[in-house]
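User: Write out your own:

AI:
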Amino acid sequence: MERKIILSADSTCDLGTELQEKYQVHFYPFHVILEGKDYQDNVDIHPEDLYRAWRERRQLPKTAAINVSEYMDYFRKWVEDGYDVIHLNLGRALSSAHQNCVLAAQELGHVYPVDSCNLSTGIGLLVLKAADMIEAGMEASEIAEELKRMTGKVHASFILDTLEFMRAGGRCSAVVAFGANALGLKPCIEVQNRDGSMTVGKKYRGKLEKVLGNYVKDRLKMYPDIDRSRLFITHSGIDGEYLSQVKKTVMETMDFENIYITQASCTISCHCGPNTLGILFMTK
């Protein structure tokens, strides 16, 4: 008897409610610890809450991965009801979530964890590919293997407006942050699709409006074989005028069947700060 498939992902996939409902994706939230209280990412805490705590009280949150026991409790009901579960995790270089998910899957069976080797809608792009394959009638094991082969085709990057949050979180030195701010530099953070680690790419200079336009054109010219079915514009909280400008620049540079705009989860936003924006897409 053919088993039906549940499609699931860590909350860090940043797909947003509309796409979550359209493609019937289940999310499991990461933990966000702020001022001693444990919250569920994008359930009872949102990026605006984090920024307010920093502005008003200079309090930064910590994030924690989903543990083995939580994954087991989450998957068990579906497995016992006769489903296979495909679950996409935040990249292994960024979190222990995938390792924990694998351990839970080994205990339960019929769960297929996939290391996205990515973050944010870099994961989301793979989630939507999985939804396409489920619709086409592929089996869960086949879908999981195909997703693993696709991770190297996902290209994610972001422009940081400020290094304040990375400095406060210990991810760059005060000297580097001060120098970047003094020179008006806005670095492009590139996600390495072999494991989800991040490196600094091109450093742009100038006002955010100009930087975002140049960044979009640079990224879309970088690859000759872009999959034009989907592109995400994902941000950590930014003025709508910037979103409209970026979408317009994308459309003037390249035709995409679907351009989605989503806001990043707390887990992603607390590391990059407000006004961070990226475009995320796949190559063929």
